[in-house]
Every structure is written in C-alpha cells, then in structure tokens.
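Trying the structure run again after the queue cleared.
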Amino acid sequence: MSAKKRRRKLHSESGMSLIELSIAGFVLVFGMLSIMGLLVIAIGNNGRSKIDSTATMLSQAVLEQLSAKLAGGGPGSLTDNSNCNGTGTTHQIAFDPGGAAVAGSAIDFVNQAQNAVPANYYMSYQDCNNNVKMIYDVRWNIQDLGNNTYLVTVGAKPLTALPSRFAFSLPVNMRTYVGGV
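Done. Tokens:
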C-alpha cells in the first residue's frame, strides 16, 4: 500500500465531527438532568417519611398510654415538644368509652371537625425538629365490648399546611384490643 493511501485512511477517521460531539453532549445533559430529578424526588420522599414516622410514633404512644390506663396503670398524659427544648404542653388522655368518630376501622378525620371531638379525646401535638414546628392532629376512640374488653382506635395526621410534595401523607391509624378475661 502506498504512503498516500495510508495517509488518507488515517485522516478519514481521525477525530469526531461536530454532529457527534453535539449528540454526546445532549445525551450527557439529559442524563444529568434525569439524575437531578431523581434526587429531588428522593429528598421529598425522605421528608414525607419523617412526617409519617412521627405520626406513627404518636399513634403508638397514645395507644400504649390508653392500654396501660385501661389495664389499671399508666400516667394518662403525654407531653409534646412545643418549646423546642424538650418541654411543652401536657395533654391529658381520656380513657372512658367514647371519643372521636370512627369510620370503618379508622378515625374519621374527614367528616368530623377537630372541635367536634369530645375534650381529652384529641390533641394538637407539636413536634419540634431543628427548630421547625410540626403540628399533628391526634384522635382516639374507645369502645367497650363487655367483659372488661375494649377496642381502642388511634389516628394521627399532620395538621399544619404541608408543602405540596408532602400533601398526600395519609393519616396513620392503629387499633388494638385491651383487657378481656
């Protein structure tokens, strides 16, 4: 093969054209934007999980207080963190049969306004995390089933206006039987 033919062969494939470079840049930019979108969604899901976890913790705490009270012990109160320093309002927990409305097997947050719930069967629990306050609507209902057996239903949901990415946080509901022979 002559030197002229070898030189042409080398030059015809030596480098990238402007079109190839533009396509590679577009693919890179599109990939980076997709990854940034995934990160934003992950951050939002992390915040919503924190809200859901706090609502679950509150439901569990009230359920344990009610179970202890109905079994003959327990303090029957819960203190929130409204001052952002570990102190706050102490909420009394009523443990007589009655309370918030129940729809099916869950507390009815839709058809019953908070001010319609009997006193001491609900609380506006304030949580403070990194000096950011979050208020939760916590309600409960106690049904007397006879023979010292009770069906306790507790629900909690965020009460404060949430950013749109958290707005679909569902209320947390828990039920348990207490007592029995």
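Strands lie at 77-79, 90-92, 98-99, 102-103, 106-107, 122-129, 132-146, 149-158, 172-179. Worth checking whether this holds up in the mutant runs.
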